[in-house]
Design a protein that fits this description.
Blueprint: H1 6-40, H2 47-60, H3 65-70, H4 72-89, H5 101-127, H6 134-154, H7 158-166, E1 168-175, E2 183-189, E3 196-200, H8 204-216, H9 221-232
Antiparallel strand pairs: 1-2, 2-3
Helix pairs in contact: 1-2, 1-4, 5-6, 5-9, 6-9, 7-8, 8-9
Length: 243
């Protein structure tokens, strides 16, 4: 009978909430540690260095279990609010309204650029096996770079691409958004026939124009890949991207 009383049910509920919060936070900590390690793993040549960094990140993202034990419900509320805020920033919640065609296109471009960045990271990782054979290494990078730029072509508007290809950046401004950081907009001189044009900096079109200009200048695919990968890791000259 005692186990069915209000106090017992309250205790069971607290234990359940505590277990759920701890499980969520432990998983989130592991994911964040893995992502952080993955972002810098190619800088390290030795397995020992990678292991040391992995241990560091696991400690950095370790769960404060004492906080959860003190007040499981408060910890759950904090987690729920954090998840809601993340969703609000990327426009997942109904109160943000129906996204415009421009917002939907931007979301598709962002997803595509994250995919291209992941492809290039995988390409570099895969190519390390032949890095001592310079010709084989260059061929591997060139083939992977072609596949990546093909994806950028799919997501690019050709008029905007030509503006980036021909134009000179005249100024950069930040444009507020309903959620998340502002967008960086660039005014480019698109040529005598078109004049100044305002386009988004963080776009498939600018990255595609960058690759085209470098290829026409005779720059090697290895250098182009390195530059494109670095560029895809930034959303603007002013702030780092979520990628």
């Amino acid at each position: 009978m005692g186990t069915d009383g209000p106090d017992a049910r309250e205790q069971l509920e607290l234990e359940l909430v505590r277990d759920v919060v701890l499980a969520r936070r432990r998983l989130e900590g592991l994911v964040l540690a893995a992502l952080t390690l993955g972002a810098e793993i190619m800088r390290h040549e030795s397995a020992r260095a990678v292991a040391c960094r992995a241990a560091h990140f696991l400690e950095q993202f370790a769960v404060d279990e004492a906080e959860v034990m003190r007040d499981p419900r408060a910890a759950l509320r904090a987690d729920t609010e954090r998840v809601h805020e993340r969703g609000r920033r990327i426009g997942l919640h109904p109160e943000d309204g129906v996204p415009s065609a421009r917002d939907r296109r931007r979301q598709r471009q962002m997803a595509l650029m994250r995919e291209v960045r992941a492809d290039l990271l995988e390409l570099v990782h895969r190519s390390r096996g032949v890095r001592f054979d310079r010709d084989a290494f260059a061929d591997e990078i060139a083939q992977g770079l072609c596949a990546a730029t093909d994806k950028l072509v799919v997501g690019a508007d050709m008029d905007t691409y030509r503006a980036w290809q021909r134009g000179i950046v005249l100024k950069l401004i930040e444009e507020p958004t309903s959620h998340g950081p502002p967008r960086v907009m660039a005014t480019v001189d698109a040529g005598p026939e078109r004049g100044p044009l305002t386009v988004e900096w963080d776009s498939c079109e600018r990255r595609l124009a960058l690759v085209t200009r470098m290829a026409r200048a005779g720059i090697s695919p290895v250098v182009i890949c390195d530059r494109l990968l670095a560029d895809l890791s930034m959303s603007s000259p002013l702030r780092y991207s979520s990628r």
